[in-house]
Specification:
With 301 residues, the chain is mainly alpha-helical. The chain contains 13 helices and 2 strands; from the N terminus they run H-E-E-H-H-H-H-H-H-H-H-H-H-H-H.
């Protein structure tokens, strides 16, 4: 069997395994979340109108760890440190779901995890000190960005799924096949009617995974040669819709003289729904625009 055929088979198996895991384990996680009162209650700033269990995040996290365990030695990068840092990010979000944590504490822990996870890229010389610091801040921003964008059924999952499709085509890494499978497996439980939510743990884990593993794919074997400005432009585009929406949200809140951490109902998806667009149309528009931004970022890099 040719090597390319073997790789395609492995990717297909990974995608299928992840899809089955995402669908089947979510079916188990939903009643467990209800039993232990892990529930997202309706609020004025949220689109949903009834109490919904937060079971999707634990499915993502457990599936991610199982995949890394099973594929140890079969992926080009060492994901052990990533697994520890991803777990820390998930746990911070999960604790925030249970009992609201201080925004400053969350941001500090996110920055810490983002900085630690890039140590291998700095130590191998592929990320200079300034690149390491900029990339760490970007990862922490993407963690918050995915959390902010997770305000409409299916949106965060679809954004991560289309990102994984583009990254799979670009890097041919088996991990992105897993990313497609597990998000599409959970999606029927989150869209069109949400039977479960990702929670802060799940959405922040998606943001961390998107940003960190993209940098791993780019700089595990290649050094950063771009200028500071070029690298920042690339990161802004590679963050796609979540990064764009978060940037607008922070600037909007600062302009109003309120904390950038203050939640509101002025995100892009909220505005489009208020303009009369059906949620499905909003979903298609935002995911399509996100795909354009991600593709453009890779073209200019």
């Amino acid at each position: 069997m040719e090597r390319n055929d073997k790789i395609m088979i492995e990717m297909g198996i990974s995608m299928l395994f992840a899809f089955i895991w995402g669908w089947a384990v979510t079916k188990i996680a939903v009643p467990i979340s209800i039993r232990y009162n892990i529930i997202d209650m309706p609020e004025k700033r949220k689109l949903h109108s009834e109490a919904t269990p937060r079971g999707g995040g634990i499915v993502l996290w457990s599936g991610l760890l199982l995949f890394i365990l099973l594929c140890h030695g079969r992926i080009d990068v060492n994901l052990t440190l990533f697994a520890w840092c991803a777990s820390a990010v998930f746990m911070v979000g999960y604790l925030d779901d249970m009992k609201s944590l201080s925004p400053i504490l969350r941001l500090t822990l996110h920055l810490l995890a983002s900085t630690i996870v890039l140590i291998p890229l700095y130590k191998n010389g592929n990320l200079p000190l300034w690149g390491w610091l900029v990339a760490s801040i970007w990862i922490a921003a993407m963690i918050s960005a995915y959390n902010m964008i997770d305000g409409m059924n299916g949106l965060a999952l679809c954004i991560f799924a289309i990102s994984s499709c583009i990254f799979l085509y670009t890097f041919k890494s088996i991990f992105w096949a897993f990313g497609i499978g597990i998000t599409l497996g959970i999606l029927p439980w989150n869209y069109p009617k949400a039977k479960t939510f990702l929670g802060d743990g799940g959405s922040t884990l998606l943001g961390f995974t998107h940003s960190c593993l993209l940098l791993y794919c780019l700089f595990e074997s290649n050094a950063l040669t771009k200028s500071f400005i070029s690298f920042c432009v690339f990161l802004a585009l590679a963050g796609g819709i979540p990064f764009l929406d978060m940037s607008f949200a922070v600037l909007r809140r600062i302009a109003k003289g309120i904390s950038p951490f203050s939640p509101d109902k002025e995100h892009i998806h909220h505005r489009l729904v208020r303009r009369g667009l059906y949620p499905f149309m909003v979903l298609v528009f935002m995911v399509s625009f996100h795909a354009i931004l991600i593709t453009l970022s890779l073209k200019i890099f």
